[in-house]
Amino acid sequence: MSDTLQEGLVSTAVTGLSQSADLDALIPADLSNTFARDNFRSDADRFLQWLTLQQLEHSVARLPASAENMEPLPAEPKTLLNTTDPTCLTVFTRLNNGQHYTDTQALLSCMLNTGHALPDTFAIAVFAGSERGLQDLCGLGASARLRWMLSLLPDWSALLSTAATDWIEPAQQLLSTPDRALSDETQDSLIQTFNDCRPNLRGWLTRMLARKPAADVARFVRSAWHSARAEGRTMLVHLLAGISDWLLSPEGRESFDWLHALPNERATSVRQLLSLLKSTLAQRGAPHGEYCLALKQALSACIAVSKQGTFDLQAPEALSPELIALGVADVRNHADIDISKPAARLGQLIRLGGPSIWAQLLDTSVENACQQLLDSRYCKELLPFMQDSLFWHRQLHLLPMLYRAANQPKRFHLEHFLARLAADHVLNQPHAASALLGCLDRHNFWQLLRLERICLALLLADVELTSEASQRCWKELQPLLLDHEYPGICASLLLNLTAEQLNQPPEHWSKLTEDQQILYREHCQRIGTAIAFRQSLKHRQASTSQGEHP
Amino acid sequence: MSKLTRDQAESFAPDSGTLSRGRKIAKPSAYKDIGADDRAIWGTALGSSDYFSLVDLSGPAFRCSCPVKKLPCKHIMGLMLLIADDPSVVTSEQRPEPLSEWLSKRDSAAKAKQSRASGEVKDPEAQAKRAAKREANVDQGINELRFFLEDILAVGLAESGKRTHDVWDNMRRRLIDAQAGGLANRIEKLRQEVAQGADTTEQALAEIAQLNLLCAAWQNRQSLTDAEQAHLRQLIGWPRSQQPQPDACLDWVVLSNERRLEAGLHSQRVWLLDPAQQRFACLLHFASVAAGASLPGGYRPGRRLSGQLRFDSAWSPLRAELEATNLLTEPTLASPDMFTQAASDNLLTAMQSVQTQRAHNPFAEQWPLMVSGVRLVALAGELALADHHDNIMALDAAFEAQLELMRLAGPEPCTLFMSTRDGRSLLPLSGLFGSSWHNLATAETGD
Predict the structure, then answer these.
(1) Looking at beta carbons, which residues of chain B come within 8 Å of A16?
(2) Name one GO molecular function term (chain B) (predicted).
(3) For B277-304, what is each residue's pLDDT tens digit?
């Protein structure tokens, strides 16, 4: 049946026979005898029979044919990340069932850290709208198939913070080949992404860049600096902090000079970080230089040591040009903690000074100096600055003293606050992750691991507890599992226990109630699944590198 | 002793929620008096009170004394999973009294059904009288329907769409009174299509043509064969009749399993393949939500199924019923070759075959086809399917698993099992991707 005939038929049926011009004109000549007026009781009957015949013929005559406007779909891009093992995907689904956003992020981070693509079904659910806020992460870990789908579905790429997908390939190359140098083209693409994307993705890019050779990192920072906004620049300063040894070496001389020749920074946050970086570099490179002397002088003005050996702290009342030159800024807040302006100035000086200068001024060991500062009347105000200082000056072995000071009645919020700051350092300076773990080894670290932020930060930095540390942690954890305390996915993923260790019953097992035993077993089962998940990823990675799974 | 496996047990879950709740209580401490034999498993779940859970594996059929209507409930799921994981938890093979009673009731019901199916008639004379009366009623209903269809065309679809619901409902009720329930349902479908306006005009015209064809076929039924008449009666509203002899094929493969929840009714459409003769069969199951009934499980796409089918019609064999489910047989997956051998290698041949069958029986709702070497392409900004000769067909507007198809197939050719309702578009139901068979059909469980 021709299109004209079908159109005429449809239009007559829609408007109705009573409105139609002429039914006879619609019926083709070769059928006019069959559908003659005399054969039917009414025009409606005639039309109904003719319509039926035409519809049936039309329907069964349809056959597929080639179409001129057919467009072949693009070829699939090449695979850059490892394909996740089906067993691992099953465990992921089980673990992720009904979990919180943070836990999901932790599971996905484990996969990305080992160079695995994220599960397609999960990523599709994210892009199709049932999961929010994980689109950038799913874009970063997209498999070849998902990247192909992203190229075909503009609605999906619009969900990415850059509203484009061209950054995914260079970013995945960073993930899969951390040691390879950055090409100019890749670097330009990454700089653009770095400037356009949301903070989460920027954090990921920074962490991946930090794994590159120091010269590459410095080249990236110098190229990206002028186009980056304040938030991006803070991450770039952290990147430079990660290569501070290289900056002090002859190879890094040019970048070192570039850093010191930077014009005054407008944003306070960047200005403070730059001062901190310059201060740490100066103390390590030229401990007797002009800057260090000025810093010691400013700090000594705040410390009054009596003849009995006791000392008192006095916060600077005014922000003098000398203090500004040292890098002290006019701030009232430290992150979200309220501190008075004089205390903030003192805090900044303490932070710039670092433990070795505290020790010199108080004429004692570094540990004692730290303890004395914590015993001072400004203890609560100084805690966050002191923690920052320990991270920037790489004196993390002193951290337990700070956590002990924070873990006191009426200072509960401080413990969380310090955990958050520590997590930020871990995320921004990869070397801090393993150092923090080393420090935790000597501390009651379950206390800190239960603050999920640190766990997540360690996972993002691809750190895992050692076997010994895991066992210690397990001993502290076991009694809690008899009650309603579950460590959560993040903390479980950090543990590194054998099945035998995990199944070892806690003390007084026989005296436990049946409910306690059931609860304990369930918790152990979930912890075991989380451990197995992470171990399966590592095993898979090892097998792939040996060529078992090309 | 039961040989229930975990996969089998999980396949009977009515929804993912029940399965997950069942998993949580699948532990020995949650049950007592667990027993099993070749035919049944049973146990007492220790919930807020004790619930007696029974499973007849030959059905399968489930019974539990808990207040939940949707079966199998979590207690039954937990019991099945527990026994599947660890058969040593079974402590008894001696059937308890309630179980024996229930099984004997089920046996008697099955016998009664069998005798009804074999066509035993108690009073042939009265039956003939009833049949004649019904035919007269249907005659009258069909006449009224033809006038109604003519009336629609006389005033036009646009005007008919604006008519009050009563006009359509009166016709529907008249057909129910005339004992033509099948036609009454189609009038409701036609009303919806006409009311939707321009978007569904072609579907409405196709439906009018189908209804008119049914009327004409009924009026000329004397010229039809017995098999054709049986099929026609079934479409009009007579109860389903089945072939007296089951089909000879014993080895089937499950191709797809489509589950829907519409208007308080669960429905399940399972497509099967006879790999030897490369023909298809369709099983349809229904379960009322209000009655707490659940659909039979175990029809996992890609698995082989040993059993005999009894087709509804010898004239156009498609819908069938499985004589007995095979819960106790170990499920084995069909090999990929089995699917590719049964598939046509291009869309044109497959559609020619479908259109020939449609011309033979224009009344079927949908026709199955399996084609290898099809790939996704874009046509006017929409996804479509093309074969290696670049013959192209659009995807059905009702196809919901586009993303899943893209994920599984990518730009590569694959083997797809599909159905077509209008001969113009395709509805993929499952496919062979890599070496495994995946379901693409809707799976609404109403969780």
Answers:
(1) 153-159
(2) zinc ion binding
(3) 989 999 999 888 777 777 887 788 998 8
Please give the backbone phi and psi of residue A517, each rounded to the nearest 5 degrees, phi first.
-65, -45
Most confident of A36-45, A219-228, A322-331, B262-271: A219-228
- CB B358 within 8 Å of CB B424: no
Q: Are β-strands B319-322 and B279-288 bridged in parallel, bridged antiparallel, or unpaired? A: parallel
Interface check B445 vs A, CB under 8 A:
no
pLDDT for residue A550: 27
Q: Which one of A72, A120, A128 has the shortest CB-CB distance to B377?
A: A72
Structure tokens, A147: 């990247």
My answer on whether omega of the bond before A355 falls inside 30° of 0, hence cis, is no
User: Which residues of chain B does A64 touch, with a Cβ-Cβ cutoff of 8 Å?
Assistant: 347-348, 351, 387, 391-393
The Cα B25–Cα B28 span in angstroms is: 8
Torsion angle, alpha carbons of A37, A42, A47, A53, to 10: -80
Residue-number span of the structural domain to which B15 is assigned:
6-108
CB B55 within 8 A of CB B72: yes
Task: Tell me which residue has tokens 């559908």.
Answer: A35
Pairing between β-strand A337-338 and β-strand B436-439 as defined by DSSP bridges = unpaired
From B394's Cα to the closest Cα of chain A, the distance in A is 9
pLDDT tops 90 at residue A239: yes
| pLDDT grade for A547, boundaries at 50, 70 and 90 | very low
Chain B nearest-CA distance from A483, in A, is 19
pLDDT at B165: 81
* Number of domains chain B contains: 4
Domain shared by B374 and B317, yes or no: no
What residue spans define the domains of chain A?
3-60
Note whether B361 and B328 are same-domain residues: no
B346: nearest CA partner in chain A: A64
Q: Fill in the amino acid letter for A271.
A: R
**Interface ipTM:** 0.82
pTM for the structure as a whole? 0.82
Q: Which residues of A touch B146 (CB under 8 A)?
A: 45, 48
The residue among B269, B302, B337 that closes a domain is B337
Residues B346 and B435 in one domain: yes
Distance to chain A for B202, nearest Cα, Å: 7
Residue B117 maps to a domain: no
Pair of tokens at residue A308: 């009995």
pLDDT tens track for A336-393: 677 888 888 999 999 999 999 999 988 889 999 999 999 888 888 899 999 999 999 9
- Residue B427, both tokens: 């509805």
Question: Mean of the pLDDT values across residues B165-173?
Answer: 90
